């Protein structure tokens, strides 16, 4: 399995969790997930794992704690007009 990192959240994806990229560092990543409704297997429609896509999103900047990193990812995901 290859780890894929994103630079910006894709539309329709949401953050499932936030964690440090390396221990004792101020770099953070967010696990982004999306469920693709078109890829559902008709034989097992309740198997969510077959339809879930996931990527790591690098949260830009240095953040001292999880709350600051969560605020940063929330700001990135806010719709701007």
Brief description of this entry?
This protein has 81 residues and is an alpha+beta fold. It is 20% helix and 31% strand.
Describe it for me?
The chain is of the alpha+beta class and 81 residues long. It has one domain. The longest helix has 12 residues. Helix content is 20%, strand content 31%. It is built from two helices and four strands. It has a four-stranded mixed β-sheet.
Furnish the topology, listing elements before pairings.
Elements: E1 5-6, E2 14-20, E3 28-35, H1 48-51, E4 52-59, H2 66-77
Parallel strand pairs: 1-4
Antiparallel strand pairs: 2-3, 3-4
Helical segment tally? 2
Query: What general outline do the C-alpha atoms trace?
Result: elongated
Query: Which percent band covers the strand fraction?
Result: 25-35%
Q: What integer is the average pLDDT?
A: 79
Structural class: alpha+beta
Using only CA atoms, what is the Rg? 15 Å
Biggest sheet layout: 4 strands, mixed
Instruction: State the helicity in percent bands.
Output: 10-25%
Order of helices and strands: EEEHEH
Unreliable stretches, pLDDT < 50, 5 or more residues? none
End-to-end CA span: 37 Å
Tell me the total number of β-strands: 4
Order of strands across the widest beta sheet?
A: 1-4-3-2
Domain tally: 1
């Amino acid at each position: 399995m290859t780890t894929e990192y994103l630079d910006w959240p894709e539309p329709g994806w949401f953050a499932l969790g936030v964690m440090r990229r390396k221990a004792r560092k101020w770099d953070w990543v967010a696990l982004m997930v999306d469920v693709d409704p078109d890829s559902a297997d008709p034989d097992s429609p309740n198997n969510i794992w077959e339809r879930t896509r996931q990527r790591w999103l690098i949260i830009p900047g240095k953040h001292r704690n999880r709350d600051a990193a969560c605020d940063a990812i929330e700001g990135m995901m806010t719709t701007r007009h």
